[in-house]
# Entry
Amino acid sequence: MKNPITMPVLSDTMQSGRLTRWNKSVGDPVKKGEAIAEVETDKAILDVEAFSDGYLAGPLAETNSDIPVRQVIGYILDQPAAAEKTGDVVSAQPTVSKKSPASPQPAADTVKNLENLGNSALAYNHDGAASASVQPRSPTLPPSVTSTIAHAAGNISPYARALAEDLGIKLQQISPGPDGQIHASQVLAAAMSAPDVDLQMGPPYQLEKLSSLRAAVARNMTATLHTPTFLISSRIALETMQKNCKAKGLSFTLALGKACALTVAEDPWFNHVWTGQGLAKRQRVDLGIAVDTGEGLITPVLRDAAARPLRELAEDWRILLGKIKKGRIAPQDYQGASFYLSNLGIFPEIERFNALVPTGAAAILAVAAAGQDGKTDFTLSCDHRVIFGADAARFLQRLGKRLEDITWLQ
Amino acid sequence: MSEEIYYWQALNRAMDTEMAADDSIITLGEDVGLYGGTYRVTEGLMAKYGEWRVRDTPISENSFTGLGVGAAMLGLRPVVEIMTINFALFAIDAIINMAAKIPFMSGGQFPMPLTIRMPGGVARQLGAQHSQRLEHTLMNVPGLRMVVPATPQDAYGQLRQAIHSDDPIIFLEHELLYFSKGVVDETAVAPPIHQAMLRRTGRDMTCIAYSQMVLLALEAAEQLASEGIEMTVIDLRSLSPIDWETCVQSVQQTHHCLIVEEDCRFAGAGAELAATLQERCFYFLDKPIQRVAGLDIPTPFNGKLEAASIPRTKDIIEAARRLVSSAGVQS
# Structure
């Protein structure tokens, strides 16, 4: 039995993954659950685990290539002998297609052979048996191969071409689909997406592909475009709290987060989110805190941040930051927050800023640096489908009180 | 008055209805009289219409088919039964050189109201010589028409239409269809004899099939629907001429075309369909036209090999999945 290994779906926003490494080579025995490859997703590097015992078999997908989710990247075989036969890594231009599909098949199972020959018109050669050197008339490969790798890159289907012409889409604007070809769905996607930037008249430039992290941020931020947002600000004195945190050796951002979570818990509307099907009322406050990784933005999530003690949250926070440092943060670590906090307080020049409400939440709080008057600007961005102005005003009022009178922190 | 009857019964009723209405209609062939036909199609007709109009013939296909040609030239409307399409090879001269050409070569002086009925296709382990699908041979003869009914209703309607036609018509039945059942409404107005029919409509892809393969395509469509793939199934009903309009319209809507034929893949109906549809639908195709067809080999006798040599429902399902999935993504 030859079982395909597919690019795993590691998060709901993941459309493709970058295969960074094979830990095993073709023919190596693998154990169920063993990490056989590494994949870079939107935000992290994760292991691909073997789903059964067996032997790794090719063709293996190339490393450092973006591969759509669920596409086959390799195979696991029951038998070691068969594993070696199927060959090694295939490049984008497969040599497989040059082989006659009839030749490498052992005569072990005639029915199977008949099936493999399938519709290739090889079983009975109309050119006569003598013409051994003649290429097969229709070199159709067994289906599994045809659909994954046997396509030359960059083709466009006739319908896609006609559609692109009708819609006035330039072919250069269209990114090919998973098979490297352009079909109607890719043309439609290009038609729906923002118009392409024209750089012809500007300075010379080089194109670089977005890193997975940047691509994910770009997608998520674009997705927030349709949220009707309003902003509301307040100035709050943080001196007492800052001193207190310093004395306790507590992360100021974390304390700020805890204060937010407690304030959200008092008014559940800040923990709801608008969905196409209705209002999603969440039953605990999961707080996402924006972190600058140096390579982009990530929002690790503190689960149940209102109810759990600060001590526990601090431990979680330490672990999350560690994972970010190692590039090992997983989707369950950074997805699904119900309220967000973004603190740029370490930049003393920043008097004020506002943040975009991520999809999946109704509000995000942007905290700047303290001003001349010793007060700090808090700007709350709210989804007006869920939160109204007066609610937001009361939220900032309560948060302000909580931050100035810090009995809860003691 | 519609009821569920067997395919052979539908043919029998069509014969009976036509023979009762028109004395010039005769039928001849091996065992069509006393025995009532190998698949019972002429059952009871000899008793009713006599041995002059329902004639048993010697085992000599070229002779009795030629006799049918002569009878047609002289004003009768013969229905010749050839026991299986494999034996039609003996009658090729009468069919191709005579029936197909006389109306043309006589400048229309001799119409050819001749119907030649025969079963074809792979049944169950009858060996290579009795499992042929020779539609690719006969549909390639200019001057002949060929119909391939898949349902009892079409068997009934198309046989009556064939008998009425002044052109020579190959009426191709399928050995596995004789005992399939379906509702036949004898009063229904039949669609034009060569018109294809949509047996099922779906937005994702078009499957074109004929005869026995229509039933498999419909089975496949049912399962594909449960996976979210909506497949249109076109029953061609006629291989010569082919109703291109119906096929083109559907492919222009779905942009994906799968052709299913039991006949060998090489140079047959599927090849003709693929060639013409790409000519006529090129700018509407989002994927290359796909074919699921019989292998280009003499049919093996071994039951498993035999089954693997022609399309099965699962082959259609797999081909359909590949056709509509974004290629490269496998489930």
